[in-house]
Amino acid sequence: MSGLLDAALSNPWGMLDTMLEGPLHPGGTAATAQLLDRAGVGPETRLLDVGCGAGDALSVAQDRGADAIGIDPEPSTDRAVQGDATALPIKSGSVNVLLAECVLCLTDLDAALAEANRVLGDGGRLALSDVVVDGNRPDVPDTVAEALCLTGARGRDRLTDRVEAAGFEIQTVSDHHDDLLEMRDQVTDRIDYEGLLGVMGERGERA
């Protein structure tokens, strides 16, 4: 059991990838599709997916006819280029929609929002989903907290305030708490969650 725990802590993203089907964020592909609907992504929409990972959202956007490319620090798809949310290698005003799913909490939010503003053209939309935490962050190992997008998580009001301060007008907000619980259940159904926490001792009990 301790060997499994060590492997999970050394590569939490890899562990989640084996446990879950589709994108590694609450709601998966269905949540991405809903977000693209709200951002009006359709044929010929120029979309930039920041932190695109394996490119699942790019596929959803391209199936709609969008001209979609991705940016990721370590791209694992040929539809993406290497880059960072705070320094996008994209021309100013060249994007209709910037998609950021569970990624801005992992970077400098103000710098990333400024870059989003720069690359979006007139009438451009920011399609944002992120993890927010009510109260204190759960007491889990740092690597696990990073995998679950908890290291930079903010309260919802603080996040929306920062988005508005960056010059964006928030049109809709949707709560995906139930999707997060479903994601948790998918993982706990496939691994001995209580056993792993037991190996962690008192810290596992707190978690």
Description:
The protein starts with a helix and ends with a helix. α1 packs across α2. β4 (95-101), α5 and β5 (120-129) form a beta-alpha-beta unit. It has helices at 2-10, 12-19, 28-38, 56-63, 109-119, 142-147, 156-165, 177-190, 193-199, 202-206, and strands at residues 46-50, 67-72, 80-82, 95-101, 120-129. The protein has a 5-stranded parallel sheet with strand order 3-2-1-4-5. The protein contains 10 helices and 5 strands. By secondary structure, the chain is of the alpha/beta class. The longest helix has 14 residues, at 177-190. 43% of the residues lie in helices and 15% in strands.
Q: Any chance you could write out the topology, listing elements then pairs?
A:
Elements: H1 2-10, H2 12-19, H3 28-38, E1 46-50, H4 56-63, E2 67-72, E3 80-82, E4 95-101, H5 109-119, E5 120-129, H6 142-147, H7 156-165, H8 177-190, H9 193-199, H10 202-206
Parallel strand pairs: 1-2, 1-4, 2-3, 4-5
Helix pairs in contact: 1-2, 3-4
